[in-house]
UniProtKB/TrEMBL annotation:
The lineage of its organism: Bacteria, Pseudomonadati, Pseudomonadota, Alphaproteobacteria, Sphingomonadales. This is Epimerase. GO terms for molecular function: L-threonine 3-dehydrogenase activity. Residues 11-172 form the 3-beta hydroxysteroid dehydrogenase/isomerase domain. Signal peptide: none annotated. Gene3D superfamilies: NAD(P)-binding Rossmann-like Domain. PANTHER family: L-THREONINE 3-DEHYDROGENASE (PTHR42687), L-THREONINE 3-DEHYDROGENASE, MITOCHONDRIAL (PTHR42687:SF1). It comes from Sphingomonas taxi.
Length: 477
């Protein structure tokens, strides 16, 4: 158990949108000493300077690729909140090796530090995953839960690294770890984002949003002594529940008044992005209550955080704003750029075909704004989910492997956290814990991060076939 006296919490990613909210909540607690990892180039930032003046805050200068600074942060820490990392859209503009070094290497460094200078039986590790790990889930498969197949959108190296990092944490051998997969997170700086990634998000896709406010509350809550032991060694979706489930066009209408005057429906992809409504997000709220602000609460408050000029210009000069946004869509990485340059691979991934894009109405009056079913539907995970992980037997593992088109080569099941040997439908052999496979939804480490394998995997795997509804994306990429 964590000591009832002052706890030391080591936080990465403190200057990000989620991290800043976590700092606010944690520094409000009298029983916590907050140790923050801060890159040298961040020290002159406004929020960094504020943290340096906060009572009970210790600064560790370094970064996630620096094992020595990670050890300094972990040494003596009761809880490690690993929020930091390179995220999209920034991650999409950096070399894949750089993103891997930070996101995968950072997780590896934290686990190694806990084993070297921490206590694998006592130190608690909270890892922040992402909804991007399960990829495109457009209706009718828009309801999801942990344990669903890992399925990464084409070109999403960020999701690849988060999947690999999650596996490092889950198979670390640390007694108290947890993976919390972040959904779309609404924060008050969203209006500043001006990147072609905005056109990758289907208008009729869905998100069960969380807010930066609630995510900060969650980070403080997981440090509490009242967190039940059953919470650890699990995977959870962070979401705001029923009150925060919206279709993307609803969020657009709520966040951009007059959007029809400055946007056109054919600028937006129809597939190959992530987002889902969660059938299981209430499970996290029940274990660690954190919800306070729904997405509608956020949308009501957001205008007060946007400068008046930024709110007025779209209303006064809609044609100018529309041209500026259209130019962004035509820039490298934007949807219109793919068609202007005849980029067949991206067209196939995000639209299916040029013909499918040409069929999208050019005006809003003709575009169908859909409302997918709000009745939760669950995917089949291929084993008896009423059996507690401690009671899993070899037959359960064999059934799950068969449902994934592969085999379990173990001779016994010695618990959910002891790796066993498997082989996938494409013949790759690998070791993985039953917990990561069954409750995390992971499968072959080679296939699950390579969308080029998805067509063949779906042919042989009833498990994966349930979510593979975009075969052209892999076949034509």
């Amino acid at each position: 158990m964590v000591s009832l006296s002052t706890k030391v919490v080591f936080l990465t990613g403190a200057t990000g949108n989620m991290g800043r909210e976590a700092v606010k909540r944690l520094t409000a607690k009298d029983d916590i000493t907050l140790r923050v990892l801060l890159r040298a180039e961040e020290r002159d930032g406004k929020f960094a300077r504020q943290m340096m003046g906060m009572k009970g805050v210790e600064i560790v200068t370094g970064d996630l690729t620096d094992a020595r600074s990670i050890e300094t942060g972990v040494r003596g820490a009761d809880v490690v909140l690993h929020v930091g990392g390179l995220v999209s859209p920034l991650a999409d503009h950096l070399p894949p090796a750089t993103v891997s070094a930070v996101n995968v290497g950072g997780a590896r460094n934290i686990v190694a530090a806990i084993k070297r200078v921490g206590d694998p039986d006592r130190t608690r590790l909270v890892y922040i995953g992402t909804v991007a790990q399960t990829g495109s889930r457009n209706a009718p498969i828009h309801w999801g839960r942990t344990g669903d197949p890992i399925k990464i959108s084409t070109y999403d190296h960020y999701a690849v690294t988060k999947t690999q990092a999650e596996a490092i944490v889950a198979e670390s051998g640390i007694r108290h770890w947890v993976s919390l997969r972040q959904s779309g997170m609404a924060h008050f700086d969203m209006w500043r984002m001006f990147d072609p990634i905005m056109f990758h998000n289907p208008l009729n896709g869905v998100f069960e949003w969380s807010t930066a406010n609630d995510s900060g509350r969650l980070m403080a809550a997981v440090c509490d002594d009242a967190v039940p032991d059953s919470f650890w060694r699990g995977f959870y979706n962070i979401g705001g529940g029923a009150a925060s489930r919206v279709v993307n066009h609803e969020f657009m209408a709520g966040s951009m008044a007059g959007y029809r005057d400055v946007l056109r429906p054919h600028w937006f992809a129809t597939r190959n992005f992530h987002g889902q409504w969660y059938a299981d997000s209430d499970r996290l709220e029940a274990l660690v209550p954190f919800r306070e602000q729904s997405v509608h609460d956020y949308l009501a408050e957001a205008p007060r955080h946007i400068p008046a000029l930024a709110r007025l210009v779209p209303k006064l000069l809609p044609k100018m704003v529309r041209k500026r946004i259209e130019n962004l869509a035509a820039a490298p990485g934007g949807s219109l750029h793919w068609f202007a340059t005849d980029d067949a691979a991206h067209i196939a991934a995000y639209f299916g075909s040029r013909a499918a894009w040409e069929a999208i109405p050019r005006d809003w009056a003709a575009f169908e704004l859909k409302q997918p079913s709000r009745t939760p539907t669950l995917l089949d995970h291929g084993y008896d989910e009423t059996i507690a992980p401690a009671d899993w037997r070899l037959a359960d593992l064999q059934d799950a492997a068969h449902f994934r088109g592969g085999q379990c080569h173990a001779e016994s099941c010695d618990g959910p956290d002891r790796p066993v040997d498997w082989s996938c439908a494409l013949g790759h052999r690998f070791a993985m814990t039953p917990n990561l496979l069954l409750r995390g939804g992971h499968w072959c480490p080679t296939c699950q991060i390579d969308s080029m394998c998805y067509d063949r995997a779906a042919e042989r795997s009833p498990f994966f076939r349930q979510v593979w509804t975009e075969p052209t994306a892999a076949a034509d990429a």
